[in-house]
Write a structure and sequence with these properties.
Distance between the termini: 106 Å
Number of helices: 13
């Protein structure tokens, strides 16, 4: 802006002194403006000048330049060509301000300077002076609105840029911005950390140098096709770091088109830990399945080993009942027999459970009589009911067909469990 002030002061001086040379001019005022603008331009290169000091100097240059334009207008009764120079000056300077407060201070200075010069030091007719002053005031108001809109837009853009920069820098993913051919323009710090390259090392290089192997023509064609159709593409890709080590990365590519320019945004997730976790899950699953299989085999073996001698005990008990026993001995033998049968049912349940768990249970389907099956269940559990003083009986509706086809052993096991539970939780009655 200082350089613009230098050339503007020279340009206006040449215009009003050499071309439009019948106006009233004070050469010293233009010399002051030229000197102030040149000074501001020169100090802008000094490393010792703080940004705040430089801004204040440039701001002062604006006011000095505008004051000179107002003086020229006052000396020439705000003639049209001088008035045009004033409008051009305040418009160019006001648009350069960054916020509304700066613009308001400057436009207030312009308004006051115009009013003082127009009504206090010129002989311009009052009506013409009012029209000129009103035009200046309206222009200042419009310029203030423009600056306010511009400042709000710039503020929103800055907030969005800072927010985007924060999100990109804080994400756990590597982010790359490339052209449509994959040449890297920008990347975040996470990308440098993930691949081991510096940010500057990756700029300008094609993203393909981070792949462990080049894409085939078919893969490249399908990827571009998906990008053009869906504006995104993603896949698990074998990538490599600077040290030569490789890892599985989940690469997601988005296609962005802005202002006739095409960009690709690469988002890379390191799947090393995830893949290791998946391998651990598979191993754990296999180990669990092996444990279940071993447990099933153990239960089946143990159940079989126990069931064989139990059948022998029950068989010998039944033979013992046929010998000459007194009443009390027969009662003991009967108890042993029933207990053995109950234990055999439990063993069969365990064996069936292990078979169900391993998915290997087999049903023995045959014809059987439901009434006879229920009588066996009642006779088996009648002693337990008598001990608790309960009446145990069953009733089958005459409309029910008792001749069935199925696995009577499994059905009997279910009925024994149900009746056992009934006996367990029934205190009195039947």
């Amino acid at each position: 802006m200082s350089l613009i002030g230098v050339f503007s002061s020279i340009g206006f001086a040449l215009l009003f002194i050499l071309v439009y040379n019948h106006g009233n001019e004070l050469l010293w005022d233009r010399a002051i403006v030229f000197g102030v603008a040149l000074y501001a331009y020169i100090i802008s290169f000094s490393p010792r000048i703080s940004p705040k000091r430089l801004y204040q100097t440039v701001n002062a240059t604006f006011f000095v330049f505008t004051a000179q334009v107002l003086i020229s207008n006052t000396l020439n009764n705000f003639e049209f060509i001088y008035l045009v120079s004033l409008f051009l000056s305040i418009q160019a300077i006001t648009i350069s301000f960054r916020d509304t407060r700066q613009a308001f201070s400057y436009l207030a200075f312009v308004s006051v300077g115009t009013g003082v010069g127009l009504f206090g030091f010129t002989d311009t007719p009052i009506l013409e002076a009012l029209i000129i002053f009103s035009t200046i005031m309206i222009s200042c108001g419009l310029l203030l609105i423009i600056v306010k809109v511009k400042a709000g837009f710039q503020r929103n853009v800055k907030i969005q840029e800072e927010l985007l920069a924060t999100v990109v820098s804080k994400t756990e993913d590597a982010i790359f911005l490339t052209n449509f051919e994959g040449d890297i323009d920008e990347c975040n710090d996470r990308a440098a950390e993930m691949f081991g390259f510096g940010v500057e090392e990756m700029r300008g290089r094609n993203f393909s140098f981070l792949r462990n192997k080049d894409l085939s023509k078919e893969e490249d064609y399908l990827g571009v096709k998906q990008l053009l159709e869906n504006k995104f593409w993603n896949s698990e890709v074998q990538l490599k770091r600077k040290d030569g080590s490789s890892f599985i990365g989940y690469v997601s590519v988005g296609w962005i088109r802005k202002f006739e320019n095409e960009y690709l945004v690469y988002r890379v997730k390191d799947f090393t830990e995830r893949k290791e976790f998946e391998r651990q899950l598979i191993r754990a699953k296999e180990e669990a399945e092996e444990a279940v299989r071993a447990k099933g085999e153990f239960l089946a073996t143990m159940s079989h080993e126990i069931r064989t001698p139990m059948n022998g005990v029950i068989g010998m008990t039944r033979l013992l009942k046929q010998t000459g026993l007194d009443g009390k001995q027969k009662e003991f033998v009967k108890t042993i027999e029933k207990s053995g049968e109950n234990l055999l049912v439990i063993i069969n349940d365990i064996l069936d459970f292990s078979k169900i768990e391993s998915g290997k249970i087999e049903l023995d389907v045959h014809n059987f009589d439901l009434k006879e099956l229920m009588l066996e269940v009642i006779n088996l559990l009648a002693p337990a009911a008598e001990e608790k003083g309960l009446d145990l009986a069953f009733r089958i509706s005459p409309h029910v067909n008792t001749q069935l086809v199925g696995d009577s052993t499994r059905i009997k096991q279910v009925m024994i469990n149900l009746v056992n539970n009934s006996l367990k939780f029934t205190k009195t009655g039947s």
